[in-house]
UniProtKB/TrEMBL annotation:
SUPFAM superfamilies: GST C-terminal domain-like, Thioredoxin-like. Residues 86-212 form the GST C-terminal domain. This is Glutathione S-transferase family protein. It comes from the Bacteria. CDD domains: GST_N_GTT2_like.
Amino acid sequence: MKLYTYPDAPSPRRVQLFLAEKGLDIPRQTIDLRAGEHLRPEFAAINPALTVPALVLDDGTCLVEPIAICDYLEQVHPEPALFGRSPLERAMVLERNHWIETNGLLAVMEGFRNRSKAMSDRALTGPRRVSQIPELAERGVQRYGWFLEDLDRRLADSDYVAGDRFSLADITAWVTLEFAAWGIRTNLPETLTSLQRWHRQLASRPAFARRD
Ligand SMILES: N[C@@H](CCC(=O)N[C@@H](CS)C(=O)NCC(=O)O)C(=O)O
């Protein structure tokens, strides 16, 4: 197994936090996105979508969606369980995770990729040139604000994003907040106290305290 990654970018960071929480260390190679290494033919031969993470299995299969990579690792290494421990818990983790991806991660991505100078003809990942839409950047930032308010309300009723147990959904939410801090320069408002409490709780976990 080998993981192609770039630790500073949100999607690979999700997988790396998942691995750290599992206590797994698998061989990895950094693909420097800033240097454009993901656009080179050598990496296109591994992942034609030109994105990281990419997990190449021993039989040559390549998984490129964080949810699929994490699910595979969960099946192969079930402990500690990060997708819940019952059918209902698993459904809640997947439900919340999808909600965070759609309303949080995607909103930040729209905000970042549609206004960053470095992304001027790369508003979407992949091999095609895609122009920026400034209005989409604005809407992404607005949508992220709504996401934070909604997440804060949800966290008023539970310790973690998908209930009383730490899960993949917490990793996705944490990475979304990190991405927003540098990607659209939006930090967590002091007024969102449940979110602040959750954030302190996660920051004390060893996997979250270090960067690798
Ligand atoms: N479908 C994957 C896409 C992964 C993705 O977009 N990765 C970004 C880094 S976070 C990337 O490789 N970007 C390359 C680029 O900007 O061209 C996901 O939803 O996570």
